[in-house]
Amino acid sequence: MSENIALQGVIVKGVGGLYYARDPEGQVHVLRAKGKFRKQRITPMVGDQVYFTPGTGDEHGWVDEILPRESELIRPPVANIRHIVLVVAPEPAPDFLLIDTLIVMAVRQGIQPAMVVNKCDLDSGLFDTVARDYAQLNIPMLKVSAQTGEGIEALQDLLRGGICCFAGQSGVGKSTLLSAATGLELQTGEISKKISRGKHTTRHAELMFSGDFCVLDTPGFSLLELWEGLEPIQLKDYYPEFFPYEGECRFAPCYHLSEPGCAVLEATRTGKLSAARVERYHQLLKKVQEAWRNRYD
Question: Residue 95 and residue 60: Cα distance in Å, rounded?
Fold first, then answer.
């Protein structure tokens, strides 16, 4: 049998034009991308499922084909993330505007968000608030403590079966949770407090494996391109709790911002919707409107 038979694998790292692909046996191969990808304006990404021809001896191999992507992010350039695990904790105080922003980012890119409330041993009430405000999103919500072990098994179940990554503020315990659940020691990057861009870092995104787990170690997520191509009227489509009120507003389309006769605003006033989450929606809507006005600048 030829040593150069094509294999299927996943790209775990890309640095300086070289791509590192892990085959089903766990061996990592050093590859370059064939010229056809440059002509097609396609760049292999960490997380890509690929067919590749291994190299022989000291020769590198070649990425022959990139399989269709389930999801795709630009900064960092990663593909096929299944779950983004959004971590909050009683300390530091949760930045729910950041969480809402990341939920929109995830859903737009075909990534399934999940919510994890860590450090529940410090304050069990935070989970109740999260469960109430985000109940209608129909996403996994876990109550976890890396210190006591509560919820770790449920977190492990969530992390199995695809590429996962963690996101959230500094200090919420993402790395500790990852270590407790998977045994991996990651240096997870942070998102700037202004949620405008990731902190500058020279590290590269990399897939890490441990048993059934495949976790993306990333220097952080850039939110610079988050609103690109999103029309302001479309933002409400990422808020499932608004769906029951579609068609009941006096005006159509309705931005659910300040229009008279808005069913969403009325539901907020009567306590049927989370006032805090609607207020954050208004903040994000203004950002989307500004990005839309400046889209040709």
Answer: 45
For domain 73-217, give its CATH number from 3.40.47.10, 3.20.20.100, 3.20.20.150, 3.40.50.300: 3.40.50.300
Q: What pLDDT does residue 200 have?
A: 41
pTM of structure: 0.86
Q: How is domain 7-68 classified at the CATH fold level?
A: OB fold (Dihydrolipoamide Acetyltransferase, E2P) (2.40.50)
Q: What share of the chain is helix, strand, coil (3-state, %, to 5)?
A: 30, 25, 45
Query: What crossing angle do the helices spanning 275-293 and 96-108 adopt, rounded to 10°?
Result: 60
Whole-number CA gyration radius for the chain: 21
Tell me the C-alpha distance between 274 and 214, whole Å. 35
Helix residue ranges, H only, the chain: 35-39, 96-108, 125-133, 152-159, 174-182, 263-269, 275-293
125-176 pLDDT, tens digit per residue, is: 899 999 999 999 999 999 999 889 999 999 999 999 899 999 988 888 888 8
**288 forms bridges with which residues in the sheet?**
none
